[in-house]
Design brief:
By secondary structure, the protein is α+β, with helices and mostly antiparallel strands. The protein has ten helices and 20 strands. The chain has two domains: about 250 residues, Naphthalene 1,2-dioxygenase Alpha Subunit, Chain A, domain 1; about 110 residues, Rieske [2Fe-2S] iron-sulphur domain (Rieske Iron-sulfur Protein, 3-layer Sandwich). The radius of gyration is 22 Å and the shape is globular. The structure holds FE2/S2 (inorganic) cluster (FES) and fe (ii) ion.
């Protein structure tokens, strides 16, 4: 985020704090409970939002340097992402063209990928360059047996992929300016500091929690609540994406100081969180940038949050590593024991028949906008 924006947002937060106001939607909003419980709708949304839009697959710092690769399942699709010798990333379906085995697992560095099943080999651009016992296998047109390429792009320290080979993939129009808004913070300076995989409830319940600070004082009363302003944030929209900021208590130290001395992000006085549709949350923190990739799981009531953190400080010595690990442990604990423990209860409550609708308040404009976007993009 550039300085002008950082100061503009800090000013808005301070105005709300001093006036006791909050950013507001024009009306309350009702969400039918089926939006959280209907398995058919859930499947349609996974297809439309996750499998047909550019989604965040990881952070650039996960693929540091030529030859770095990572293989992961993204909403059930096996994906291989590779950075070549020129530093360009490519993405493929991680599916061997012989009989479908994954050609790579985990992450690492490689100039070629040898399928573990019968050892066919592919290069970094997905070309088939080796067929085991080709003389006995019989004739094969190698040029038609490369890995299937997926659309991908790198913006703002993030890796975006499309999960269908021929889908439309205009990353800059999809990001609607949000990539530039994030990028000014220098994500190329980040060093991979760790990752976590956390089991979570329905992905929409998880994302709603990212889009308001109305729950901080109550649900997070023993963790982040005491250090943040409850029910006080700014909301900005970039196409289907939303920037929400949260003010930390000591942001009031800025009052009376000249704006030239204001560094609220660096000084941990505010947190900026970009919710990239459908399910990624990119947080700018004083110590780095965190990507939370929330993806629908096995059924309507399940998702996973793959959390990856890039720190500004290189994890070079044990003290730094211990500090970074403790930071990630803290975030993971808050998410798992507070947000997601509550989210699983909510999911259960939604299925109980007690409610026909959830009611979103005017003080929850981010959540309202999220639901409006889903309705628009799904066409219902
Ligand atoms: S499935 Fe990959 S070599 Fe046979
Ligand atoms: Fe929360």
């Amino acid at each position: 985020m550039n300085r002008t924006e950082e100061i503009r947002i800090a000013r808005r937060l301070l105005d709300h704090i001093q006036n006791g106001t909050a950013e507001s939607a024009p009306h309350q909003h009702k969400v039918e409970i089926g939006r959280y419980t209907d398995s058919d709708l859930w499947a349609d949304e996974v297809e439309a939002f996750y499998r047909c839009s550019p989604i965040v697959a990881g952070m650039s710092c996960e693929l540091a340097g030529p030859g770095a690769y990572m293989a992961r399942h993204i909403v059930g699709v096996p994906v291989l992402i590779v950075r070549d010798a020129q530093g360009t990333i490519s993405a493929f379906l991680n599916v061997c063209t012989h009989r479908g085995a994954p050609v790579a697992a985990g992450c690492g560095r490689a100039s070629r990928f040898t399928c573990p099943y019968h050892a066919w080999t592919y290069d970094q651009s997905g070309r088939l360059i080796g067929v085991t016992s080709e003389d006995t296998f019989g004739p094969l047109d190698r040029s038609r047996h490369g890995l299937t390429q997926l659309p991908c792009a790198e913006r703002a320290g993030l890796i975006f992929v499309g999960l269908k080979p021929d889908m439309p993939f205009d990353i800059d129009s999809w990001l609607a300016g949000v990539g530039d808004h994030i990028a000014d913070d220098g994500p190329e300076m980040l060093h991979l500091g760790g990752e976590r995989l956390i089991e979570a409830p329905n992905w929409k319940i998880v994302m709603e929690g990212h889009l308001e600070s109305y729950h901080f004082a109550s649900l997070h009363r023993n963790s982040v609540g005491p250090t943040t302003f409850n029910n006080c944030g700014t909301i900005d929209r970039f196409g289907p994406h939303i920037l929400i900021t949260v003010a930390h208590r000591h942001i009031v130290d800025l009052i009376g100081r000249p704006e030239s001395e204001w560094h609220p992000l660096r000084d941990g006085m505010m947190t900026a969180q970009y919710v990239l549709f459908p399910g990624a949350s990119i947080t700018l923190l004083a110590n780095g940038m965190m990507a939370q990739m929330v993806r629908p799981g096995r059924h309507v009531g399940h998702s996973t949050n793959h959390m990856v953190m890039g720190f500004y400080e290189r994890p070079e010595n044990p003290d730094v590593v211990a500090g970074q690990t403790a930071f990630l442990d803290f975030i993971e604990t808050v998410l798992r024991d507070e947000d997601y423990a509550m989210g699983f209860e909510i999911q259960n409550g939604m299925g109980s028949g007690a409610l026909t609708h959830a009611t979103l308040g005017m003080n929850e404009p981010g959540v309202i906008y999220f639901h409006q976007i889903m309705r628009e993009l799904l066409g219902r």
